[in-house]
Task: structure prediction
Amino acid sequence: MSLRLQPIQVATGDADQESQLVFHDGFLVAVLVRLSHEYEDEAGKWYLEVGFGRVNTATPPTFTDLGEAQGWIEQRLTRAA
Result:
């Protein structure tokens, strides 16, 4: 499975600025935001700001890095297929 990431800035209302749009087969499936220092122990981790379709979840997870986030997204897309 191939995901494409596109860096973007998302106005989340706080200091979070580094974000990634995640595409699969040309469709936007998720928005990931890197957590700022305001999140203390979670700072530097990636957060699923929003997932679309099969990536949507009521309890958005955090990820250590983008590789972990991509793996989780791929599992959601594959499991629901």
Q: What stands out?
A: Residues 48 and 59 are 9 Å apart (CA to CA). The first helix runs from residue 66 to 79. Residues 3-79 form one domain.
